[in-house]
Amino acid sequence: MSLFYSYFIRTFRTVYLPIPDFRRIFVCEIKTFPQPAGCTPSDAMKQIAHIENDLGSKFGVPRQSGLATSLQSRIIFEPPYRNADALRGLEGFSHVWLIWDFSEAHREKWSPTVRPPRLGGNLRMGVFATRSPFRPNPIGLSVVKIVKIEWATKQGPVIHVEGADLMNGTPLWDIKPYLPLTDCRPEATAGFAAETARQEPLQVTIPESVCKRLTPIQVEALREILAEDPRPHYQDDEERIYGLDYAGMNITFRVRGKELTVL
């Protein structure tokens, strides 16, 4: 006859373990750690840093990293992580992966399909076949180029990067080095995204009055951002005036045909 050993585990549920042989009794401790009510993966994650740059709102943020290569950003670590030892060896890498929070796209509910702007905003695709911010877990992934690392500032070590597709203040969950040997896949295919590959950039005209208020690198970054046409693809009103929060300025512009003019 089998012997049943009864005991309580941390969840206060009774568990019965069959032990067929009296001569071999092995008592094992089983521990479970139930997920608290309302707990989500992000609750267990810690924000290690945030981005600082000239993009003050979602509108105008490059749709992918590397499209506005002149856009300068700084990675500012949160106080518990301002330890230069955590960056030891990073100076030998040219690029890093940023894992970040779509902080402006949090929703209580999610949809299995989304409308990619590049497809005109009408055709639905599976959320996991897109890079939409509206996801079950609003996590973003970007590759950026390291410009330099300041090892000792009042804010601890600061990483200067370029080509980010994040707005100012975006929380960062993690930073990992980019490894060309394993991360680069030249043979990869792009599915339906290949049909909407980079279009011909717009011709951008920026008046001298605006250029005088920016540094040369800021002007070039603004030109790259606008050349990618930040408007939703379903909007094509040539008389409509758009506003972009950039470097503390409200950059207004109009698009007519393939020409974008800053007003």
What is the fourth-level CATH superfamily of the largest domain? YaeB-like
Q: Give the overall silhouette.
A: globular
Return the CATH architecture of the largest domain: Beta Barrel
Biggest β-sheet: strands ordered side by side in the sheet: 3-4-9-8-5-10
Count of alpha and pi helical runs? 4
Strands, count: 14
* Largest sheet descriptor: 6 strands, antiparallel, barrel
- At the first level of CATH, the class of the largest domain is Mainly Beta
Poorly predicted runs are 1-33
Examine the coordinates and then state which fold CATH places here, giving the name of the CATH topology of the largest domain.
Elongation Factor Tu (Ef-tu), domain 3
- Average pLDDT confidence is 85
Oligomerization status of the protein chains: single chain
Structural class: mainly beta
As a percent range, the share of helical residues equals: under 10%
| Overall tally of structural domains | 3
Order of SSEs: EEHEEEEEEEEHEHHEEE
Q: Give the distance, in angstroms, between the N- and C-terminal Cα atoms.
A: 89 Å
Q: Tell me the radius of gyration.
A: 25 Å
Per DSSP, what share of the residues sits in E-state strands of 2 or more residues?
Answer: 25-35%
